[in-house]
Each structure stands twice: as C-alpha cells, then as structure tokens.
Write a structure and sequence with these properties.
Helix content is 0%, strand content 50%. The chain is an all-beta fold. The protein has 12 domains: 30-76, no CATH class; 84-148, Sandwich (Immunoglobulin-like), CATH 2.60.40; 155-223, Immunoglobulin-like; 230-299, Immunoglobulin-like (Sandwich); 306-378, Immunoglobulin-like; 385-455, Immunoglobulin-like, CATH 2.60.40.1080; 461-538, Immunoglobulin-like (Sandwich); 546-617, Immunoglobulin-like; and more. It has a 5-stranded mixed β-sheet, with no helix packed on it. Strands 25-24-27-28 form a 4-stranded antiparallel β-sheet, with no helix packed on it. It has a 4-stranded mixed β-sheet with strand order 30-36-35-33, with no helix packed on it. It is flat.
C-alpha cells in the first residue's frame, strides 16, 4: 500500500492536491524465495505446488527491484483419508447383480481387487470386494472391504391331482416353494392366493410365488380329466322273424378309467346279452373312479312278413293270358313263392303268366325262412256283344246328315269304334248319306265284334210363291204368299211346313206384307225332318215420280228477298199438286221474292206418290269496310293516316271519304274521327268511320342520381322516369345510344344530359344532372424508417374518410415478421433485412386504399473496451468490461501481460454485463499496474464473427 504525503515550502500540510504522478523504473520486478524446499515444485516462483509427505509450514520472501522485501507463510496439513464402501444396489434375488460405491473425501484415485479404478462398481456377483483409495497429490492411501451376499435360487415343486370324472371339478393343485427368502406369497391365474387350490376343472394352472425380497418364480401344472365315459354298442342283432326270441346285444366302454363293470336292466352283468326278443334294453357301465354311463339300446325285429298278390285278368273271354304278381313286404328280403291253381296248376316264382280265370294259392318265404300264405283270383271279362237296328235314320234328298248308333255290352271298357263311313271312331256315326254301314267295336283288351245298318233318303222338295206390287215406285206395301209344295211329283200339305222370308226383319208365315216394289225375295220352306225347299220371287214396281229445279236467281244484296226458283215433274200419275216450304204463295211451279236459303218443293201425283227437289238461293257476303288507322306519333303533330279495305259484296268497290277523297287511304291527319262510304258492283253500300288518336301528353321525364360508393368509382347510377308520350321508353345519356333500362349503371362522377325516347320515337331532353362522389378513402403508413438488426418495431396505419368498419390486409401475405395480418398496427419481429411492407384497407362499402413503407435494417458493428480501469475496491471502475450492441455476444475475451502470459480469459457472455470482466487479479493475486493487451472475438446477432485487439492500462 502506498501513502503519499506532500508539504509545501513552509512545511504546511494543509492544501488541495490537484494532481500527482509516480513513475517506476522500466526494469521494475519482483523475485520470490520459498522455504523449506522439500515437497515444493519450485522455490523461486510465485505459485509452487506443495506435496509434503507430512504436514509442513512454508515461508515466502518477495524482493522487488528496489530491494524492498515482504514475507508471509502458509501451513500445509496432511490429513488421513476416511474410506468406506456403500452397497448401493444389493442382490435381492438369485442371479441378480450388485452395485457398490467407494466413499472418501477429496480428490482421490481408486484401485479395486478386480483391477477396476472407478469409485463405482456395477454388475457384480456375490463375493468380497476391496478398494485402495489414494488422495491425489498427497499420496495418502486407505483400504476398505465389503461382502455381497446372494439368496439361494427360488424354486417351486408342482403337485396337481386330476379330475376324477369327465365334466366334474374335483381336481386339485398345490405348490411347494424352496430357496429365496421366506415368507412366500402366492397368486394363481384363477386369482386364488393360497399354496393349494381345489375344486378345479381340467386345464392349465399357473402360480406366481413371491418371496420376501420380491423375487418371483412361476410354476405351471396341468390338471387332466379322463375322457367321457361312453358305452359303445358292438353288436345289435334282431330276432330272425317277427315275434322271435333269438336277438343279441354286445357293448364295450370308451373313456373313463379302467376297470369297468356292466349291469343290464334284465339283471345280467356281462358286456352282452343273448336270446332276447325285440324291445328296449338299458346297460350301466361303472369305471374304476366310480364314474358311470348309461345307454339304452333298442332291439328291433323284422316287420311281419306279408304279401300282396296282384292278379292281371284274362283280357278276352275264354282266353289264357291272365297273370299273377306277388309283392312281398315285411320279413327279410329276398322272397320266393310257390303256387297251386285250378285244373291241377302248380308253379314257382313271384310272377306267373298264361293263366286261365280261376282261384290260385301261394306260399311266400323270406331269406330267413319266415312263411306267409295268400290266395288270389284271376278274372275274365264277359263276352263282347253288339246291338244296332237294321235302319238307323232317314235323310233328306241328297242329304248327308244321317246318324247311326251302336249299343254294346260285355268286354272291357273303354271301347273303340271304327265305322266303314269315313273311318269315324265314335259310338255314333254322323254326316251319313243313304247307304249300308258297318261298325267294328274293340274293347280295352283288344277283343272285337261287328254289326251293320242302313240310312234311308226322301224325294226332292219344291215350292212355288206369288206376289202383289206396292202403290208407288219402291213402295213398301207389296204382299206375297206360298202357293204350293211337292215331294218330287207328289203334292204336300203347305200347313206341314215352316217358312222364312228374307225381309227386314225376317217373316215366318206362309203369307207376308210390307214387300218393296222392284225387290227380289228368297223363301225357305222346312218340313218336320228339316228338309228344305228354297224359291225366289220379284215384286213388280210402278213408274217413279221424278222432280227437278228448272231455274233460280240469287239475292243481289246481303239480307234482301229478291231471289226466285222454278220446278217441274215427270212420271207418276197426273195431275200433280205443288208445295214449297215456307208457305210460299201461289203454290205452283214458280216461287218468287225469296231470301237467301235452301228451299224444298214437294210434288204429289194422283196416287198420292210424292217427289221432292231442293234449291239453294245464294246471296253475296255482307258488304263490309275494314279501317286501319295509323295514329299520330307525337302529341300535336299531323302524322296520322287511315286506310279502308272493302270485303264481301261483289267487286269492284268504290270509296268516298267525307272530305271528297276517293282513294283507299288518306294521310297527314291530325287526331280525330274520319268517315267513309263504300259501294260494290251490285250497288250495295255500307258506311264506316275511323278514329286517329295521339298520345294524351307530350313525352317528358325526371332524373335522379346515386353517387359511386367510392371515390373514383364507376358504380354510380342515374335513375330515369319516362312520363307522357307512349310507353315503353328508351333512355340515353348525352349522345350515347339509347337502351330500355331506366337505370343507367357504371357511371363515374360528372355531368350528364339525360334523354327519354318513347315507343314512337318522340325525344325529350332533360336538364343536365351532376353525379357526385364521396371523399377518397385514405391510408398513411408514414415515412420510411430504419431499425437495428434484430430490433422489434411496430407499424401504424392512419385511415381517413372510411365508411363503417374497416378491414386491413398487410402484405406480403405470407410474412412471418408481422404479429398479425388483419390488424391496424401489427408488431414487426426479428426483421433480418431491409424490406417493404404494404397495407390495403377496405371499408364497409368496399372502397380500398393502399400505402407502402420501407423499413431499413441497420447492422452496426460497435465494440468498446475502456483504455484503463482502477480495480481498487471502491466499486467504481473496478472491472475491465466489454461494451457493445446488446444483441451480440462475446465468444472469447483474453488479456495478456507485457510478457505475453495470458492473465485472464472469459468466454460466451453478452456485452454490457457489469459482472463479466477482469478484476485485475491473476491466480488470486493483484496484478501490477501497467499496460495490458486484450483480444476479443465477437459474434453478431446475424451470425457474423469479428476479432478485435487493443490495450488497456491497469491503474492502482
């Protein structure tokens, strides 16, 4: 420690020290001398390493260049090492490994009897382990031992007992542990927790045994059960014949546990029983464990042997083509049969043939000798006999509708018939003409019989008729009658016949009325046998009365009665009378003063026979005039016209307007009514008038506007309303083409002159109208600005003239630097380079505005280390600190003395940390005042690195 005392020339110590300096010799230095020398690494260095074999006191003397000295001492004590071993992981279960830890204070080395040199040993088996611990530097040693024990292996002995009978739960299982560390606990796979379990079904049982150390052993055992005890029938033999007693049953046992005992419900105790009848038998088998099984067996017997003899009759009376067939049933197939019959007949076989009618006996025997007897009768049909008259029928002349029927008896139905007439095959032959006929009848067995008959024919039938004519031509009052009928030349009684006249409707009497003159009629007469005679007759017809129209004239003008007509008659019987419909008088051949229409004249002759003719009196169609006006287009003008068109009457037409014009059309008309008269070729006339109209009012209109939603927009509208004139209207702005929409859209702000044009082209121009617009939507991000690299900032958007809520959209849209993309003032984070940010704002009307701002990112490289510091403990400038940008960090800060020895190093810290700096000491001792060199490696926030160098002065 230095102390400075100053006196003035009066030896006055009072005053104020303004400044002072002290200069050392450039060769200033300090030397050191330690003693005693034993155990020291050096005796002339400032910091020797002391390793004395025993505790010792060391003294150091320091001498500077000026000969000044100072001394100090230090006691170095050698202490004993307290060594021990801890078993950190003991062996709890047989086969596990242990871990041990050697314990000693200080910095030591370790040597185990296994040769390992770490404080901790792991994966150790049971045994004794010794460690020698040596302190580093002092070479003090100590030893310790530990013994690791291991339990014996945990084992289990399984003892299962099987189920006695199939399906029971009489099994047991037990386990006997040994080894490990008792006591033991048990957990079975059926949740039981004792060393033995009972009432078990067959299956695998597993138990987990846990000793007191938690070691486990798993033992499995199988509990079996015998197979299901069953009785199997080895032989079930039925009695040979129905009702016999030579049956037999034999059984044996399967499954269970031998030996087996058998007991039958008959009292027998063998596996089988013999000499039994059909019936139900029960046997009980018991095995060596007392398990039993019962089986019931039914011994059947063959059904009663029976037979059915089926005779097949003799087909024809007196023949020997019958047969017999036996169908055996019951007993035991196969069957054989022996026969006896009439006339000493004997035979063998289930089927016998060529038999005469009669009774037969059979003996039926099955394959086991069982016998059954039966009787059967073979029958034959009666003799086939036919019956038919000599003459079967009578037919008309040349007729073929005769019939013949044969009656038969005997034989076997059904029967077949065959006639000599056309190969007919029914019992009755039909459609027969006169002739001799033969029939052959065959029964179902092919037996036949024949018979004959004859068909008789009558002579030809003829008829004669007479008629009387009607009064008028084609009249319907003629008459007729049948005069006579003959069979050949023999007359017949006309009352014995029925008749049919082909009148409409038909008449069925001998005499008829209502016959038409000039028409031919057919009459059919039919006798009791249905034989017919047909004749025709024509009715005479008087001359026809014929009438005709000899002339007529039409009406000249529509609706008048100026027509006429004349008629005449030919034929019939004069004189004639005349009648015109409509009561025209006089009633003669000429009718006058007729209106248009159809007229009928009726002429009647002396016999009252009428004749009619019709005539049509025509007239021209009604004379009409059709007037078509063309109305005045615009109010107050004379642009109308009218056109007349004649129709009806008789061409040509003449026209006369009230103005004197004789043309079909007149023009240049103002609104009003105009009259015309038209006449045709026959002098018929008709008047007419036409009205030329004009719009009720001149065309006019109104206009209103809707401004664009946004400043500079093109969505303004002008609403036009047409008035007066003639709808519909068309609309136009300025000199643009007109359209039919009263709403003009897509209008920007400005002045416009609307026009309204009606359907007639009348044009009305409105006063100019101004389309206004709102103030422009504005957004301002302010001027461009700069930030430091890695510095955060914020953007501020100022919006003006917005309508309603405003939405915000920042760009670039995928920016990762902005805190939000749709807010008004987003924060900007970790911007690494200069870039532009833009915003688009939209108000509730859809108006948009944009702005852009440039943020420049500056990357300053400023590092500062003071040129001097005073580590004197006054808490002012005591540390040599590193200053710079706070977002950067110091990778390496080194300080060297003037001999190049590094006296300080600090790595990986941030700038401006007032705890990270050099305190002027080296190895715990203050360094001498003087100039020191520093080096500094810096990493900036953008990853770039830079090395700085400089010097500083340590002042004390």
């Amino acid at each position: 420690n230095w102390r400075l005392r100053l006196n003035d020339d009066q030896n006055n110590i009072n005053g104020k020290l303004l400044s002072w300096t002290m200069t050392f010799e450039p060769s200033y230095g300090v030397t050191y001398q330690w003693s005693p020398a034993g155990g020291l690494s050096c005796t002339d260095c400032p910091n020797p390493i002391a390793t004395p074999p025993v505790s010792a006191l060391y003294t150091v003397t320091a001498t500077d260049s000026y000969g000044c000295t100072a001394t100090d001492d230090v006691q170095v004590n050698i202490g004993a090492i307290a060594a021990g071993i801890t078993i950190t992981q003991p062996i709890l279960c047989n086969g596990q490994k242990a871990t041990i830890l050697a314990n000693a204070p200080g910095n030591n080395t370790y040597l185990w009897n296994t040769g390992q040199t770490t404080a901790t040993l792991s994966n150790l088996s049971a045994g004794t382990y010794t460690v020698t611990i040596t302190s580093v530097g002092a070479f003090c040693t100590s030893s310790a031992s530990v013994t690791i024990t291991e339990p014996s292996e945990l084992l289990a002995t399984a003892s299962p007992n099987d189920v006695t009978c199939f399906g029971l739960s009489t099994g047991t299982a037990a386990v006997y542990p040994s080894g490990g560390v008792g006591p033991y606990s048990y957990v079975w796979n059926n949740a039981m927790t004792t060393d033995s379990i009972s009432n078990l079904l067959p299956g695998t049982y597993t138990v987990t045994i846990t000793d007191n150390n938690g070691c486990t052993e798993i033992s499995s055992m199988q509990v079996f059960e015998p197979a299901l005890l069953q009785i199997v029938t080895a032989l079930n033999r039925q009695p040979s014949c129905f009702g016999g007693s030579d049956g037999q049953l034999t059984t044996y046992a399967l499954g269970g546990t031998t030996p087996f005992d058998f007991v039958w419900n008959t009292g027998q105790v063998n596996q089988g029983i013999t000499s039994i009848t059909a019936g139900t038998y029960t046997v009980t088998a018991t095995d060596g464990n007392g398990c039993s099984a019962v089986k019931t067996e039914t011994v059947t017997e063959p059904p009663l042997l029976t037979g059915l003899a089926t005779p097949i009759a003799v087909k024809c009376f007196g023949k020997n083509n019958g047969s017999l067939q036996i169908q055996g049933s019951g007993g035991t197939p196969q069957y054989v049969a022996s026969w006896t019959g009439p006339n000493g007949f004997v035979g063998n076989g289930l089927n016998i043939n060529s038999l005469f009618a009669g009774q037969y006996q059979a003996t039926l025997t099955d394959s086991k000798g069982c016998i059954h007897t039966l009787t059967a009768t073979v029958t034959e049909p009666p003799l086939l006999v036919l019956n038919m008259p000599a003459v079967s029928d009578t037919v008309c002349f040349m007729g073929n509708n005769g019939t013949a029927t044969v009656q038969n008896a005997g034989g076997t139905s059904p029967y077949k018939y065959l006639w000599s007439a056309g190969s007919q095959t029914t019992q009755t032959a039909t459609g027969l003409a006169t002739n001799q006929y033969q029939v052959t009848v065959t029964d179902a067995n092919g037996c036949t019989a024949t018979s004959e008959t004859f068909i008789h024919e009558l002579q030809e039938l003829n008829a004669h008729a007479e008629t009387a004519p009607p009064g008028c031509h084609d009249g319907l009052d003629g008459t007729g009658f049948i005069q006579s009928i003959f069979y050949g030349a023999v007359p017949a009684n006309v009352n014995d016949f029925t008749y049919r006249w082909n009148t409409a409707p038909p008449q069925f009497t001998q005499s008829v009325t209502g016959l038409q003159g000039g028409k031919t009629y057919t009459i059919t007469a039919t006798d009791a046998l249905g034989c017919t005679a047909t004749t025709t007759v024509q009715v005479a017809n008087p001359l026809e009365l014929e009438t005709s129209i000899t002339g007529n004239g039409d009406v000249k003008c529509f609706g008048e009665s100026t027509g006429w007509a004349s008629a005449k008659a030919v034929g019939g019987t004069a004189p004639y009378t005349w009648f015109w419909n409509g009561g025209i008088s006089p009633a003669d051949s000429l009718a006058q003063g007729l209106a248009a229409g159809t007229y009928r004249v009726t002429i009647t002759d002396a016999n009252g026979c009428p004749g009619t003719s019709t005539v049509t009196i025509g007239q021209p169609s009604e004379l009409r005039v059709s007037l078509q006006p063309i109305h005045v287009g615009c109010f107050g003008e004379s642009t109308g016209s009218a056109k007349a068109t004649g129709s009806g009457g008789v061409n040509p037409y003449q026209y006369l307007w009230e103005s004197g014009a004789t043309t079909t059309s007149i023009a240049n008309l103002a609104a009003g009514t105009y009259r015309i008269t038209i006449s045709d070729f026959n002098g018929c006339i008709t008047p007419g008038n036409v009205t030329v109209e004009q719009p009720a009012e001149p065309v006019s209109g109104t206009a209103t506007m809707q401004p664009p939603k946004c400043h500079g927009g093109f969505d303004g509208r002008i609403f036009l309303t047409g008035l007066g004139g003639t709808a519909p209207y068309r609309y136009a702005l300025d000199n643009k083409p007109a359209n039919g929409s009263p709403v003009q859209i897509g209008i920007p702000a400005g002045f416009y002159t609307p026009r309204i044009i009606d359907a007639n082209g009348c044009d009305f121009e409105l006063s100019p109208i101004e389309v206004t617009q709102p103030e422009a939507l504005e957004v301002d991000l302010g001027p461009d600005f700069a930030i430091l690299y890695g510095e955060d900032t914020q953007l501020f958007a100022e919006v003006g003239n917005a309508q309603g809520p405003v939405s915000y959209a920042w760009n670039p849209a995928d920016s990762t630097w902005l805190s939000c993309m749709d807010c008004i003032n987003p924060a900007v984070y970790s911007l690494a380079f200069t870039r532009f940010f833009g915003i688009t704002v939209s108000d509730s009307l859809g108006c948009r505005a944009t702005d852009m701002v440039r943020i420049a990112v500056e990357k300053p490289r400023k590092v500062f280390v003071p040129t001097g510091f005073t580590p004197n403990g006054d808490f002012n400038n005591d540390l040599l600190l590193v200053h710079g940008q706070s977002t950067s960090k110091v990778l390496d800060f080194k300080i060297f003395d003037r001999w190049g020895e590094m006296v300080f190093q600090l790595q990986d810290f941030t700038f401006n940390d007032d705890t990270k700096g050099w305190d002027g000491n080296f190895r715990g001792q203050p360094c001498d005042p003087g100039v020191y060199v520093w080096t500094l490696e810096v990493e900036y926030v953008d990853g770039e690195k830079e090395v700085f160098k400089g010097n500083t002065t340590l002042i004390r």
